[in-house]
C-alpha cells in the first residue's frame, strides 16, 4: 500500500499526493493499492493491516532543501499529533498494533521542501526535482525481489532508519 499525503494548497507540501498520483497513473503491480490524502486519519488503520508493506509519501521541513529520505518506521504512540483530526504515520502503526496485533513493514519516503505557504498551488523547482528520486525509492520498496527489512537499509537501527539522497 502506498499513501501520499499533504496539502495541495501549501506548495511543496503537495509532493506526497503528487507522487502517489504519478504512481497510480503509471500502474502498479497487482495487490499494490495507491491512495492520496490531505491528512492521515484513524480510518486508515483497518486498511494498513491488510497489507504486508506500506509506504508513506510526504514533504519534510527538517533537512536540506531537495534532500530525499527513506526511513523505516515503527509504531510509536508517543508520536501523537497536536490535532485530533490527523495522525502521524507512527501513531497509525501504534493503533494497528493495539487493535489488530499486526504491524505492516512501513517506510516513509520524504522530500525536504522550501515553500509551504498557504494558497500556493505549485511545487518549487527544488521539490519538482525530488519527484523522480522519490518515485525511484517507491519502485524499489514495492519490488518483491527487494528484501528491504529495516535492518538491511544502510545505517539501519532496529527502530528507525534513514537513508538520505541529496539532489543537486
TrEMBL record:
Keyword vocabulary terms for this entry: Hydrolase, Protease
Top-rank taxon: Bacteria
Region annotated Disordered, chain positions: 148-168
Amino acid composition bias (Basic and acidic residues), ranges on this chain: 159-168
GO molecular function: endopeptidase activity; enzyme activator activity
GO biological process terms, semicolon-separated: protein processing
InterPro entries xref list: Pept_HybD-like_dom_sf, Peptidase_A31
Gene3D superfamilies noted in UniProt: HybD-like (3.40.50.1450)
PANTHER family in alphabetical order: HYDROGENASE 1 MATURATION PROTEASE, SLR1876 PROTEIN
UniProt protein name: Hydrogenase maturation protease
Organism ancestry: Bacteria, Pseudomonadati, Pseudomonadota, Gammaproteobacteria, Chromatiales
Amino acid at each position: 500500500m502506498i499513501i501520499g499525503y499533504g496539502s495541495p494548497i501549501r506548495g511543496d507540501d503537495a509532493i506526497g499526493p503528487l507522487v502517489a498520483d504519478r504512481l497510480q497513473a503509471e500502474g502498479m503491480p497487482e495487490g499494490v493499492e495507491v491512495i492520496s490524502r490531505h491528512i492521515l486519519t484513524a480510518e486508515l488503520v483497518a486498511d494498513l493491516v491488510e497489507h504486508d508493506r506500506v509506504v508513506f509519501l510526504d514533504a519534510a521541513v527538517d533537512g536540506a532543501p531537495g534532500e530525499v529520505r527513506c526511513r523505516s518506521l515503527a509504531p510509536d504512540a508517543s508520536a501523537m499529533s497536536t490535532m485530533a483530526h490527523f495522525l502521524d504515520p507512527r501513531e497509525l502503526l501504534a493503533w494497528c498494533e493495539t487493535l489488530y496485533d499486526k504491524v505492516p513493514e512501513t517506510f516513509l519516503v520524504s522530500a525536504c521542501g522550501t515553500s509551504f505557504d498557504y494558497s500556493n498551488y505549485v511545487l518549487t523547482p527544488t521539490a519538482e526535482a525530488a519527484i523522480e528520486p522519490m518515485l525511484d525509492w517507491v519502485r524499489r520498496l514495492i519490488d518483491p525481489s527487494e528484501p528491504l527489512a529495516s535492518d538491511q537499509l544502510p545505517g539501519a537501527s532496529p527502530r528507525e532508519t534513514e537513508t538520505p539522497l541529496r539532489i543537486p
